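Homework help board

Subject: predicted structure for assignment chain

Our instructor gave us this sequence and asked us to write out the predicted structure in token form, then describe one feature. I got the tokens but I'm not sure how to describe them. Can anyone check?
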Amino acid sequence: MARRKRNSARGNRNRDNRVWIAGFVVTALGVWVYAQFLSPVLEDGSTASDAKTSTVDDTKVASAESTARSSVPKLTSVRPEVSDGGAGRHVAEKGANPAQQGLPENTSQRDSEDRAKAQALFAAGMQASTKGDLIKARNHLNDAFRLGLSRDEMIEARAALTRIGNDTIFGPTIVEGDPFVSRYTIQSGDSLGKVATKYAVTDDFLAAINGIADKNRIRAGQNIKVVHGPFNAKIDPATFIMDIYLQDTLVRNYKVGLGEHGSTPPGRWQVGDKIVNPTYHPPRGGKIILADDPENPLGERWIKLIGIAGKAVGQTSYGIHGTIEPDSIGRNKSMGCVRMHNEDVAEVFTYLATDKSIVDIAEE
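My token output:
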């Protein structure tokens, strides 16, 4: 009897051991399956969700841009901010080793100080704008923009600088203390073109801001507003944004299209001849398309660019022009030229002065 009880107890222990071992094996197998299959699927789902959110945000910005775009060229802009980032594209990544990036050891600290200074200037600029101190607001916001802002702050700063430009530069009003503008009295023998050349702007621009219907009809003793140019442009291929500067102050921005396969040379360009209703001569041969032909891919404006620095040196066959393919704006689809919406290039045509204005195209 005692032996039977011992054998029964031993059998129960063996059975318990087998159950425990089986449970351990099942648990280990479950962990392995999760690591190999389920975890990547869940991570991919999270990534897809983030991508979807980003796409929705970009769509809202693009939609706002399209809704507010005017079909009539004008100097006083009501366009929304079209920036989709880029303020911090040269800032070292958090936690990155400066030595691995070929940057000075104190880069991260300097970037942090610049960002803090930029945010303080941004806040001061927005406050000054609210109080109506437009010149102070413009100075602070421009300095903040130059130092680097977050995406949302950049959008607000660009929009505020555009509004300030409307009130100070692109209309007949002269704000006291504005160093960019002054009054000029037309002298005997003056032409509007002569005055424009003196101030490094275009006669079209002076006519527009002064309400002069006929550029060839001005009179001695007439007082006009003049703006101290030149206007310049900077293009960021990463965001397809052209920023327009009056000297070194941001006043306007536009969306552009660039060359496919990196065919728009980065560097510095001088503005050359400008043509209204240009004839198109295909650079790779083919049919010449006359001005006003609806098939003309240049639209109604051509601004010649002459390469003077960087990879642009010696290049003379590139330009800024309109397009008959508006969907190409914001994309790399041209043969190398800078494309713009037709109403946008009509405005830029008015700002940029031959031999005076500079266009900088950044490296991608």
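Reply (TA_rk): Your tokens look well-formed. For the description, you could write something like this. The chain has four domains: 1-68, 69-91+103-168, 181-227, 231-361. That's the kind of observation they're looking for.
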